[in-house]
Specification:
Elements (H helix, E strand, L loop, with lengths): L1 H81 L4 H7 L9 H7 L1 H49 L22 E3 L5 H14 L5 E2 L3 E5 L2 E5 L12 E3 L11 H9 L1 E2 L8 E3 L4 E4 L2 E4 L10 H48 L5 H52 L5 H76 L4 H68 L4 H9 L14 H12 L12 H12 L7 E5 L8 E6 L2 E4 H18 L2 H37 L8 E9 L5 H10 L8 H21 L5 H8 L6 E9 L2 E4 L8 H27 L11 E5 L10 H10 L3 E5 L13 E9 L4 E9 L4 E4 L3
Parallel strand pairs: 6-7, 16-17
Antiparallel strand pairs: 1-5, 2-3, 3-4, 7-8, 8-9, 10-11, 11-12, 13-14, 14-15, 18-19, 19-20
Helix pairs in contact: 1-2, 1-3, 1-4, 1-7, 1-8, 1-9, 4-7, 10-12, 15-19, 16-17, 19-20
């Protein structure tokens, strides 16, 4: 006992250690949970700050978007007035014109890029006005010079008293000339005077300087020398008139001699000739000239010429002044436009609020990530502490269970107190143990005597029970004898004889009765067997009828099945369902009786495959937004045909009923006026849809061209898509397309009315040409916007750009590359558009940019493979390509996973070999 107490004390110490370990882990768990709660609170606060900063960012974006739309609307007017193409400004000024999200929302996704494009367009506007103003300034400078020249001429002519005779280019200046010294003789008419002056002017004689009986055309060159005797001299037509300013310098006689040496008759043979018809000759120089009137010979003519010259100079000065004024006004307008453009450029809404809000969002996001990380760490620490606590609790429980000790400290303390009391009690028990031993020995002796007495008592009780049983048997025998002693002997003998006779009769009939009994038993057994079999057959038949009833009920419950039978039987007032009141054969009979009128006698069996094929053929001719499909989840049940349309999804029978009712209502109510109203409504919707499609097509081409502008071939060959309105459209179609391309909210009521009228007329003309075409097909063919535009692939090589055709001077490899460029650009642009639509605020776009190439780059020479793969990489496209010879291991591909399929036909085995390409090295991967 003492050893047991000592062991239990050791066990209690083990329990103390386990309990202390559990308490330590529990304290650590409490600390971890407290830290986790603090981290969770910090994460929630960071999340709230992030939400608030995100809201502020959205508000900043919205305010910026509103400001940029207002700015773009004002700027668009300036740009349109300048005749520039500004797609970014026009798109922002017309919100809602983009696919999916509005342009305002799309603008806020990348405001810096949009602002850069808007700033570039405004910069182009400023540059345009700068260049235009510079051109006008240069023109104004020329016009000012012309004005000054005209003013100088006016001033000079105002100071002159006589006009200066016109000199030829090769003549030098002189103080006076022949025109200053002569006048016409009386008798010459105006035409003769004009002809003679024209001859003298063209020959240079009119502006020549007379000197010493000779005429000098130029310094040192003599045109005529005084030589009398010439026939028909000019002295007959001209008279010498020396002006007062030249008196004393010019000798009239020498001038007269000179005139006498010049003839006016072509037949005179003179060296110098000047005719009345304008013909002249000076030595070997000959010619013919004409004038409307004389201007330089004679004072009257010279005064008239001077007056006309002054008037022409004044007119020229006025014209120059007007040109200067107009140019100055134009320059002022251009300067004002330039200042307006510069002002618009300076007030372009800055993205600083968005950047600040975005920085705050980024900081809040980083703080949230850090708080979430701390919360995760705290949660992980708490989880680890909890697992440690579970382990410590399990260890404590196992120790307590193994040692049969309490798990709590109070119980363990109570156990130790009990153990101490046990130890003290054990000490007292040792002193009492001797006395107890002696008492035990005395008890053993008394127990032996008590056991002998108990055995003797048990023997006496058994003897008593035996004798009591014998007494009961004798008592029963005695009672029987007393009952039989009371009857007479003769009566007993008679009864005995009668019983014997009856026994003989019964024994005589016994064989026959036994035979009948055996036959009856046999018949009964056969009847029971037949009844059992009949009952089993009846039960089986009832079960079969119940199964058939349940199956028929399930078939009738198939959606649309009963309605189709009702339509087939043409029973409008039939019940919606057939329900049997009873089960088994009775219920089946009720259902058969109810279905009899609905089942035609000539009903043929139809296989599901036939229905599938018929449905497949009819799906191609269904109207827009209509579709049909067949399904048969249980092969034992009828096939279900469901129709999806504008009315929703329903069974074929319900759809037929609904469409029939709708058709009857429409056929009964639709009038010509309603038809026109419906047509206008459809045309309005279609016009909006066409406008959206045209805008989407322009956006797609813009995205593709932006992608195509980033890539070229190895020979610097680039590609651009040209999407423009077809030049083969007539004027009416051009106007209709122009109105359709305009957003509905920007069209005026007059333009809407004009558009509806044009669409109605076009549809009426198409209906007249194709009266049997469905209205849907008629609209699709007539209003196909793709037929109104031309798409061309423009090949750019250097500064030249030509349309791609068979005659384009490109090599075969370049032609392959050029044909692949638009296809890959279309895929890249589509991915860009999807990324812009699906990217939420504060979230990076997550669009898969895969291109699947089956039998990639077939019939393309190997020297072009690297460029084609590099093209995919440049367009930021990932690809999955299958080929029997291409691996894509080119320097233009930075990373690639390659799987080679090796097939052994003899072993019916396929082996997959995996490789990894890192842009320089191809390594095989071991896949376990």
């Amino acid at each position: 006992m003492a050893a047991a107490v000592a062991r239990r004390r050791t066990d209690a110490e083990h329990m103390h250690d386990a309990l202390s370990a559990e308490q330590a882990v529990e304290r650590r768990l409490e600390q971890s949970e407290s830290a986790h709660r603090q981290a969770a609170t910090a994460a929630d606060q960071a999340s709230e700050r992030l939400a608030e900063n995100t809201r502020l960012l959205d508000a900043a974006r919205s305010e910026w978007a509103e400001a940029i739309v207002q700015w773009a609307e004002a700027t668009r007017i300036l740009i349109e007035s300048a005749g520039l193409d500004a797609p970014a400004t026009a798109a922002v000024a017309q919100p809602g014109s983009g696919p999916g999200a509005s342009d305002e929302d799309a603008a806020t996704h990348n405001p810096d890029d949009l602002r850069a494009r808007l700033h570039a367009e405004t910069e182009a506007l400023v540059d345009l006005w700068l260049r235009t103003a510079g051109d006008v300034e240069a023109r104004l400078a020329r016009e000012l010079e012309a004005e000054q020249e005209a003013q100088n001429l006016v001033d000079e002519l105002a100071l002159r008293t006589e006009p200066t005779a016109p000199r030829l280019d090769w003549q030098s200046e002189a103080d006076y000339c022949l025109a200053d010294l002569v006048d016409f003789a009386p008798g010459l008419d105006d035409s003769q005077r004009a002809g003679l002056e024209a001859a003298l002017q063209s020959s240079g004689l009119l502006s020549a300087r007379p000197a010493d009986e000779a005429v000098e055309l130029e310094v040192g060159d003599l045109a005529a020398v005084a030589s009398p005797g010439v026939a028909n001299p000019l002295s007959e037509l001209l008279i010498v008139t020396v002006p007062p300013r030249l008196e004393g310098q010019v000798d009239e006689g020498s001038i007269r001699k000179l005139l006498e040496s010049i003839s006016y008759s072509p037949s005179s043979g003179a060296t110098a000739l000047a005719t009345l018809g304008g013909a002249f000759k000076v030595g070997s120089l000959r010619g013919l000239h004409s004038k409307e009137r004389a201007e330089h010979i004679g004072s009257t003519a010279r005064r008239a010429a001077l007056k006309q010259a002054r008037a022409e100079a004044r007119t020229r000065l006025d014209e120059a002044t007007d040109a200067v004024r107009l140019s100055r006004d134009e320059l002022a307008g251009h300067r004002e436009s330039q200042r307006s453009a510069q002002r618009q450029r300076s007030i372009l809404p800055t993205t600083e609020p968005i950047l600040s809000a975005r920085a705050a969002v980024d900081a809040a996001t980083a703080a949230l990530d850090e708080a979430v990380a701390r919360r995760s760490d705290a949660a992980r620490t708490a989880a680890e502490a909890e697992r440690a606590l579970v382990k410590a609790s399990d260890a404590l429980q196992r120790t307590a269970t193994t040692l049969s000790l309490p798990q709590d400290g109070q119980g363990l303390a109570a156990f130790e107190r009990d153990l101490a009391e046990t130890d003290s009690t054990l000490q007292r028990c040792r002193s009492l143990l001797g006395a107890l031993g002696r008492s035990v020995q005395d008890g053993h002796r008394w127990f032996g005597r008590w056991r002998d007495a108990v055995e003797a008592l048990e023997a006496e009780r058994a003897e008593l029970r035996r004798r009591q049983s014998r007494h009961d048997d004798e008592q029963a025998t005695l009672a029987t004898l007393e009952d039989s002693i009371g009857a007479e002997y003769a009566e007993v003998v008679a009864d005995l004889d009668r019983c014997g006779a009856e026994l003989e009769d019964v024994e005589a009939k016994a064989p026959e009765v036994r035979a009948e009994r055996d036959a009856a038993f046999l018949h009964k057994a056969e009847a029971q067997a037949e009844a059992t079999a009949a009952g089993e057959r009846r039960e089986q038949a009832e079960q079969d009828c119940e199964v058939t009833r349940v199956s028929l009920d399930a078939a009738l419950a198939t959606p649309g099945y009963f309605a189709a039978a009702r339509i087939r039987a043409d029973t409008e007032h039939a019940e919606d369902a057939v329900v049997a009141a009873a089960a088994g054969s009775a219920g089946l009979q009720e259902m058969v009786d109810a279905l009899g009128p609905l089942v035609p006698p000539d009903l043929a069996e139809v296989q599901p495959d036939s229905v599938y094929q018929s449905l497949q053929r009819r799906r191609d001719v269904l109207g827009a937004n209509w579709d049909a499909e067949a399904r048969q989840p249980d092969p034992a049940m009828p096939l279900v045909v469901e129709v999806t349309g504008p009315l929703g999804r329903a069974t074929l029978a319900d759809s037929v009923t609904a469409v029939s009712q709708q058709h009857q209502q429409v056929a009964g109510l639709l009038s010509r006026k309603q038809d026109d109203a419906l047509r206008e409504l459809l045309q309005g919707l279609i016009a909006s849809e066409i406008a959206r499609r045209i805008f989407d097509a322009e956006r797609l081409v813009e995205h593709m061209n932006r992608r195509l502008g980033e890539v070229t071939t190895a020979h610097r060959v680039g590609v651009r898509l040209r999407w423009r309105r077809s030049r083969e459209l007539d004027d009416a179609t051009k106007r209709m397309v122009e109105l359709l391309a305009k957003r509905p909210d920007l069209r005026t009521p007059d333009e809407d009315h004009e558009l509806r009228r044009a669409l109605s007329q076009r549809l009426d003309d198409a209906r007249a040409e194709q009266p049997d075409v469905p209205y849907r097909q008629l609209i699709a063919d007539t209003l196909d916007y793709k037929n109104w535009h031309d798409m061309a692939v423009m090949v750019r090589k250097g500064s030249q750009e030509t349309r791609l055709s068979r005659s384009t001077p490109l090599s075969e490899g370049e032609k392959k590359l050029v044909t692949y460029l638009p296809l890959f650009a279309a895929a890249s642009a589509s991915c860009d558009a999807l990324a812009e639509q699906q990217a939420a605020p504060n979230e990076k776009p997550g669009i898969a940019r895969f291109v699947l190439l089956d039998d990639a780059f077939a019939k393309v020479s190997e020297d072009n493979h690297a460029a084609l793969f590099g093209l995919l990489v440049q367009l930021d496209l990932d690809f999955i390509a299958t080929s029997e010879r291409l691996w894509g291991t080119h320097e233009t591909v930075p990373a690639l996973a390659v799987t080679e399929v090796i097939r052994d036909a003899t072993l019916s085995t396929i082996l997959l070999e995996h490789y990894r390409w890192d842009g320089n090295t191809l390594e095989r991967e071991d896949v376990s």
